[in-house]
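YM 10:42: Transposase sequence, as discussed on the call
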Amino acid sequence: MKDLRSILRLSYKQGLSVRAISERLQLSKATVSTYLLRAREAGLCAWPLPPGHDDDAALARLLFHRVGRPPRDRHEPDWQRVERELKRKGVTLLLLWQEYRADHPDGYGYTWFCVTFAAYQQRRQPSFRNRHEAGSVMQTEYAGQTVPVINPETGEITSAQVFVAVLGASSLTYAMASLSQRLPDWIDGQCLALAYFGGVPRAIVCDNLKSGVTRAL
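YM 10:58: structure's back
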């Protein structure tokens, strides 16, 4: 439990990444990730820990008492609602799981929530995995949400678009803030992405963007 407390302190108090904690404590990244996930599922998301968590044995029981598959009579989330809510901006599976656990404290843990929802989606919407050869394609798109850019001199806040480029084979990603989705900014994003990747793929696949598409075939 000494390692667990150290992991929580380094993550919640000092804001270290999983890799940094792993290197500092000489633990595997899988162990660090598992401990942090168990802590979040138990509602421990800040440091210092809430009162009543000083006993190591009680803390271990809280985090690791659920082993194996949850019982069948556990309350099943409304997966249709989860799927519908995920289409809204800013909504994540973690947020929906936290709402679910607030209503059902003995419900699924976060890991089971994600795995079961993924299985639900697979049953409803079978998908095809598109495999790309290395260097074959770069996919580009503007992310759905904007990010605020603050002028340090005037304090004026401007909403910036987020341009994203991804290599199909490796999923290596380049992202940048852009003041608009107009043609000059769109071309600039493509050029900077290619410079970042250090080469040119055989094809660039973009979404149906007005700046980049003049006529749909």
